[in-house]
Amino acid sequence: MVRYLNEPDEDLPNLRVKEILKLCFRIEEVRATGARPGGLLHVVNSHLSEFRFTPMFVLVAPTQFVVQWRPAWERRTDPPKALTGEELCRVQPSTAAKSILDLMDAGMLNRVRQCMCGRWFYAQSAKKVVCSAACRFRKFKNADQDTYNKQRAEYMRGYRKNPKVKSKTRKEKASGGPE
Asked: Which of 44, 121, 142, 147 is placed for a possible disulfide with 131 were both Cys, Cβ 3.0 to 4.6 Å?
């Protein structure tokens, strides 16, 4: 899905998927406040109605199955393209929309983020705010030194108040140095 969001195509299905993502983010924000989403659901449902999904039985154990909704194959009006690696990796708009819904259902939609460089990425940890080491370096390099110093000082104040750190520091002072 992230690969799909980073594609440069700006045709109607791509714009629709990106709008669904924005609306889902807004629904998550509203849900966090405890308010009712109201008209947001109607708007996102109208966008979703443009996609086709098919129910399928999926075997999860020899005698147990579940019903899953999968994107239906989209019919193409243009002639088929050669099956290159790039074409095989291409994500269909309905698949991207389904991925957004699955992430939202799992409570993981907040992990889909847009980096300061404009690329979309899936944050493996809750702290991650940039897509690559190059962007992390750029973020650090562009950061205001005063802001960095204030944040670092605040972090260190909290660190020093930590009971484990306090006891370790006392032991070091009593023994005459680090262990």
From this structure: 121
